[in-house]
Write a structure and sequence with these properties.
82% helix, globular, mainly alpha, 398 residues, Growth Hormone, Chain: A
């Protein structure tokens, strides 16, 4: 009881609900990762086909983000959330009943459509209720809790596969989503002034955002940092299980160790930001990602640590930047908060889905770990160059 009281005092029910909703993508993805090589063998399909179930999820997720954001600006945050979470529950049950790769792709399509509501609207709800440094603290709190999802989910998924069946993974996801549905139903509406916009006005809201140079440039710059992280997520099961020969449960431990960085990085940032400005801290995260990518290119450590340790450092550096980066991006807009948060997550996950798909290709038999390092070094170098340009614009307000 004392542990529960401590969690409740540090993370109020509202924060826990927002974190559960924000965790829909990692829960729907990372818990399922240990099953990918198993399904590849069971259904006798190539890796790129199985990885399509990941890519389709994220692409559908990205498209529907653009729908839910404006809908939440017009009809309030709760109605689209209730619809999206319900769709997600139905999709989880469909995935649990899948008999082939085609059925799984359709189930994942619907999962992405439902999960998009949660991710798009959580950021908008936080912007409705909080402002400035307080909102950044809320983002960090949510980020710490959400970070536990990719750490726990693959371990849990590996154990479920070993003890039961991969189908139970999706049944557990449906149960968690049902808990979120109850929370959303009881949640108070956060939007005070609803937008009376129709389709034309929705289009205009996105057009205004596209004209906001600081918002667009900052969003694109920070989204590039996700390329090596998503590539690793899409290829990690193949690397650890197929290449290194570990089983699903052992893979869960390796992936969980990597995901521990998602927990430690926001905690570290929350302490440092009390003494240093966000604009000074972000470049340290970028440089950490670049150094980690270079370590992947130089095989100094034996397998699997030549992959595991550099990816831990890379994930830590990426997660160090992400909550503050989200807040910094949203600070560039004064209206259309729902559309702004939707477009931001859309761009981030679209780039991530493309990197996940490209990493699953054969690439002429090239070493995938070296390829991962090349993708990281190239993307973060671009981020560092663009950051120097954007930093000056943010200071001048241009």
């Amino acid at each position: 009881m004392r542990i529960i009281d401590q969690i409740s005092s540090r993370f109020p029910p509202f924060i826990l609900l927002m974190a559960l909703l924000a965790a829909f993508p990692p829960l729907a993805t990372d818990m399922y990762l240990p099953a990918l090589p198993l399904l590849q063998r069971e259904w006798q399909v190539p890796l790129v086909t199985i990885n399509l179930t990941l890519v389709i999820f994220f692409m559908t997720y990205c498209v529907f983000l653009l729908v839910y954001g404006p809908l939440s600006d017009r009809y309030g945050r709760r109605p689209p959330l209730l619809i999206g979470v319900s769709v997600f529950i139905f999709a989880c049950l469909g995935c649990a009943l899948a008999q082939n790769a085609g059925m799984m792709v359709w189930g994942r399509f619907l999962q992405g459509a439902g999960a998009a509501a949660a991710s798009a609207i959580v950021l908008a709800i936080c912007k409705d209720r909080f402002s400035g440094p307080q909102r950044q603290r809320i983002f960090i709190q949510i980020g710490v809790i959400v970070a536990a999802a990719p750490m726990i989910a693959p371990v849990l998924g590996g154990w479920i596969i070993q003890l039961l069946s991969w189908r139970w993974i999706f049944l557990l996801q449906a149960l968690l989503a049902f808990c979120a549905l109850i929370g959303v139903w009881r949640m108070e509406e956060s939007l005070r002034e609803r937008s009376p916009s129709g389709c034309r006005e929705v289009g205009m809201s996105y057009l205004r955002l596209l004209r906001n140079r600081r918002y667009i440039s900052l969003m694109l710059t920070l989204s590039l940092t996700g390329i090596p992280v998503f590539a690793f997520i899409g290829g990690s099961a193949d690397l650890y299980i197929t290449r290194f020969g570990y089983d699903e449960r052992q893979f869960g431990y390796f992936f969980g160790f990597n995901a521990l960085a998602f927990v430690l990085a926001p905690l570290t940032f929350s302490r440092l930001v009390r003494r240093f400005a966000t604009m000074r801290l972000l470049p340290f995260g970028f440089m950490g990602m670049l150094c980690s990518s270079l370590l992947l290119l130089v095989p100094i450590l034996p397998s699997p640590w030549g992959l595991t340790l550099p990816m831990f450092l890379l994930t830590f550096s990426f997660s160090f930047c992400r909550p503050a980066g989200n807040n910094l991006i949203l600070e560039q807009v004064n209206r259309d908060s729902g559309a702004a948060s939707s477009l931001m997550v859309f761009v981030f996950f679209s780039i991530g889905a493309l990197s996940m798909w490209s990493f699953s290709l054969e690439w002429g038999g090239r070493d995938k770990i070296i390829l991962l390092g090349q993708m990281g070094a190239a993307s973060v170098t671009c981020t560092l160059v663009l950051w120097q340009v954007i930093k000056g614009r943010l200071r001048t307000g241009a």
